[in-house]
């Protein structure tokens, strides 16, 4: 069903048994343990159920998360489902999102036996640069695991954060056992472009994507965008997107935070890091990969 369609056929009675089975199926996939009856209260559209489930997936200290990982959520560190006796793997958030995306990985690494717990490093919107975030991550990692050695990783933009954090930990005299980068690339700026051409470079492909995906054009005032900073640009584009296709609020917020994170990646200049590093790159597209 689409985001605004009801998950249940018309006339379906939401019995306690149905709600329990639905919540259990979600728990198996996500590790979240929401209130079953509240989850399926009307309207039970995909969008509404997702909104009710989101606090359980994106817990950063509210106490609603599952707490099944290692340690306690601090607002920056998020224990992920799994567990185990080995030293934790710290995973930095991808662009625009939370470390909830690592739940399937954490559950596999924390399988019965000598599993490895995973701890997410959550997004810090008040710190705009890769370097600033990495300094804060290094600080909280040292507080959580003072002795080390540490293992760090990240997917996409998260790999940039993990690399800089590993470098700072090593620079301060600590030991990083391994740095695991998952499909990490460095987004490069296009130096020398005039402001109008730069605005088109940043947003023209996105406008084409929106039209191809939603079937509606996304007219953008590139001359106006050229005069704005990053935050102003993305706010204007998100407003235009909302007016053009009216996607769910979560989609709009993800577009905004993704853009700001990727722009911080463009501004980041990685420093040399000589520690043990593993780069994992996908070789196939699709769910089977």
Automatic annotation (TrEMBL):
Residues 88-185 form the Thioesterase domain. Signal peptide: none annotated. InterPro entries: AB_hydrolase_fold, Thioesterase. This is Polyketide synthase.
């Amino acid at each position: 069903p689409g985001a605004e369609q009801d998950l249940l056929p018309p006339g379906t009675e939401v019995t306690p048994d149905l709600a329990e089975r639905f919540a259990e199926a979600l728990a198996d996939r996500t590790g979240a343990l929401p209130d079953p009856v509240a989850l399926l209260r009307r309207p039970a559209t995909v969008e509404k159920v997702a909104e009710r489930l989101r606090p359980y997936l994106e817990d950063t200290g509210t106490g609603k998360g599952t707490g099944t990982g290692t340690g306690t959520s601090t607002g920056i560190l998020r224990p992920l489902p799994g567990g185990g006796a080995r030293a934790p793997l710290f995973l930095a958030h991808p662009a625009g999102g939370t470390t909830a995306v690592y739940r399937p990985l954490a559950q596999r690494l924390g399988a019965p036996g000598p599993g490895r717990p995973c701890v997410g490093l959550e997004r810090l919107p008040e710190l705009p640069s890769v370097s600033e975030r990495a300094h804060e991550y290094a600080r909280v990692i040292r507080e959580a695991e003072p002795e080390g050695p540490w293992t760090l990783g990240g997917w996409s933009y998260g790999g940039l954060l993990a690399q800089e954090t590993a470098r700072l930990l090593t620079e301060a005299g600590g030991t990083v056992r391994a740095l695991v980068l998952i499909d990490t690339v460095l987004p490069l700026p296009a130096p020398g472009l005039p402001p109008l051409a730069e605005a088109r470079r940043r947003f023209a492909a996105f406008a084409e994507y929106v039209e191809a995906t939603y079937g509606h054009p996304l007219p953008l005032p590139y001359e106006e965008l050229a005069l704005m900073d990053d935050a102003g640009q993305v706010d204007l584009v998100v407003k235009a997107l909302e007016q053009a296709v009216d996607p769910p609020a979560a989609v709009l917020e993800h577009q905004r935070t993704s853009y700001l994170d990727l722009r911080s990646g463009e501004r980041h200049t990685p420093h040399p890091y000589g520690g043990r590093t593993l780069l994992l790159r996908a070789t196939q597209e699709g769910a089977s990969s």
